[in-house]
Amino acid sequence: MIRNHLKEKVTAMRSSLPLVAIFAILLVSCQKDDSPSLSGDAHLNLPSTPYDYSLSGLPSHLANDPGMNAMDNEPLNNPVTDEGATLGRVLFYDVNLSKNRTVSCSSCHKPEFGFSDDRVLSIGFDGEESGRHSMGLTNARFYQNGRFFWDERANTLEDQVLMPIQDQVEMGMTLDSVIARLKSIDHYPGLFSDAFGDPGITEERISKALAQFVRSIVSYNTKYDQGRALVQTPVEPFPNFSPTENRGKQIFFNPQLGGCGGCHTTESFSAPRALSNGLDPVITDAGVGGVTGIPQQIGTFKVPSLRNVAIRAPYMHDGRFTTLEEVVEHYNSGVNDVPGLPPGLRDPNTGLPKRLNLTAQQKMDLVAFLQTLTDEALSSDVRFSDPFR
User: Fold this and answer.
1) Contact criterion met (CB below 8 Å) for 219 and 304
2) DSSP reduced 3-state for 291
3) pLDDT one-digit tens code per residue, 156-197
4) What is the DSSP letter of 37?
5) Distance in angstroms (rounded) separating the CA atoms of residues 178 and 157
6) What is the pLDDT of residue 147?
7) How far apart are CA 227 and CA 330, in angstroms?
8) Is a pLDDT exceeding 80 seen at residue 17?
9) Angle subtended at Cα 207 by Cα 202 and Cα 213, rounded to the nearest 5 degrees
């Protein structure tokens, strides 16, 4: 059929065009289109029944932690559903949300790196670097004020998930363009219908689905969780921990030793609000204060959960530390005296930045404990994997 069609096409053109022109036209018509292609159903791998994205499997020490429950920022008008999170998962991994179809949300938030990036600064659709290090998304739902980005400029997760799409460095799209593009892809009307009752594709629904997926990324299967289930309180020695891990845990929770649990609270190891950790003697990134204009918030930043922290290097909003050992040393000896420094990082007697004066062994112990917060099952969980593979 193709051969007959080309024969007829040549016959029709032969009387009016030179032979060279005819072959040029045929060459162009037969060339493969090398422009980035839209995602299609043939490349989408979803189960016939949606995966379970509920938190019904949380162990009791997480499900019954009142502090952790109080920090849950899931809104009443956008609860996580299996169908909504499924749609969010597809959107999260879809390069069609970027201008030239080269990056997706997952390009900067990779499961194997705690849904963060192993680069100091992530690369946007056109090769430019982002302004800050990519924040890990593990346990993002457990942050009390519900604000997002390092500087908390997004009031809610629903607001946040749309901003990188429209950022001219990160993904470079307009929401109208995203909606038009998604409407042209066969599998999306059905996914939107499953999630919201009809096939309509809107800005609000894209926002809600992505937020549902991100909120479903919750860690609960770490060595810490396995040990925590065997004791009554987190400060007791864990039977499954090595001596160095138990010593590190004691340093973490004991205010007289490390006191890390004062800022990284609850079983989620999350903070309730933005804090300063005295990174620089002269503040060059105003953080939350740059958004709010409140002097006391200058140099404060959103505090992510410590779950999966060991696989989330580099660290801090600017990715300045490459190892956990460097992070521990900062809190041990490098905290600077800045206005927004919380009481937990100040010496109660002098008011100056606290110096922990940990020994080399104690610093090793603390790192060993932080490594028990790694959730390898989460990183490889098919529910959070790329559905286009």
Assistant:
1) no
2) helix
3) 999 999 999 999 999 999 999 999 999 999 999 999 999 999
4) P
5) 19
6) 96
7) 28
8) no
9) 130
